[in-house]
Amino acid sequence: PEVTAWAKAPPPPTMLIVPPFVSPELIPYVPQITNRPLEGKLTGSTFSLDQPICIFDKYVKDADDIWLVVAYTNASINYKNPTSPQDLPPYQKLSSTLHYMTLRSSIANYPCTKNRDSTVLRVGGDTACKREYSQGYCNGPLLTSGPYRVKFLILDSNGSKAETYWSQQIHLKIGRQPTTVDGWPGRRSGDMIVITVILSSLIGILVIAFLGTVSNPEEPRRSESFQGRRYDTHHIPPSQAPPPPPGDVPLAHHHATAAL
């Protein structure tokens, strides 16, 4: 009998189930430069943000990480949130990636308590780690004046969980070259000119007084000397006068004695 060979049917294709991409939840908060009257809140390489208070409590768990994303304005337009810790851009590659993540923290550092003093987050204040590639999450100084934009991003074990809005553009201060500094008095205020004139006059008076004391020293008084004999006069009564010495014999008596 003829045996018919039956070909085995190929196995059904394996279906790869990809979890749908879920965009992070949007937190209604816009990071901003602090309005507190602080010295150096905006410099040539750093800026200070208001620390969010009572903002993350509804979105963050204890095990979640809160990050700050710093990006150049043009790079923030098409920015894609990282999906794993390996995708986190380090500070040391800012010049090529045009963005980085820093200030890693947890909800414990953003407590929502009453009567809590507001603090600031200083971005770019760590100069020790800017060349330490082993410390990827460095808060190093900004390389240029920007402009920059920042946002807070919450990550859990599955990736991006929630994020805030991007901030407005942040322009850092630009240092001036010494040759471009205009020292012309006309650019100064009236008060500065008056103070300068008064100080210059006082200095001139002090210099003149000092030179006068140095060039005209007081001459010491000269004591007039007189050479002569010293006589001590005192009164001797006649009755107590001593007899004249032999050398004082009158000349006539001497001649009479010689004739004898």
From TrEMBL:
Record keyword Transmembrane present: yes
GO BP annotations listed: negative regulation of gene expression
Compositionally skewed regions (Basic and acidic residues) per UniProt: 218-235
Keyword terms, alphabetized: Membrane, Transmembrane, Transmembrane helix
InterPro entries: Uroplakin-3
An example Gene Ontology CC term for this record: membrane
Highest taxon above the source species: Eukaryota
Biased composition (Pro residues): 239-248
TM stretches of this protein: 192-214
Region (Disordered): 216-260
Membrane among keywords: yes
Name of the molecule in the record: Uroplakin 3B
Originating organism: Sphenodon punctatus (Tuatara)
